[in-house]
Prior knowledge:
By secondary structure, this protein is mostly helical.
Amino acid sequence: MDIKLKAFKKSVLSLSQLFSLNLQDYESNPVVIDGLKNGIAQKFEYTTELCWKTIKKFLQEKEGIESKSPKQSIKNFFDTGYLTEADYLLLIEILVSRNELSHVYDEETFEKIIGKIAIYLPIFHRVLLILEQNWE
């Protein structure tokens, strides 16, 4: 298994575990909640980066396709039949959210993106499964 795939798998599992924490258990300590949310945001950004870079490497090795950008990597992954259109569109949305999160300066946008991670986690798991099943 490729080293990028191992790192992506570890990151997906770690994000899932972190996101599964019940923040209400820590509501008496806003500093802890803030730290956990920031940790979730950082892990989401990291997982997103590993996702597209692992896809890029997979396409290069398996299909001989060179991708120059995150969006091109996702598009090529879709074009080669590994993704449904719905998953393709969701991965593009994830890239947009990652970019917004990297440059967020307001609490509302931050909270909106953190709230979407529950929607984003399943696609990370699906991409991981696709890569594991098809990488030789």
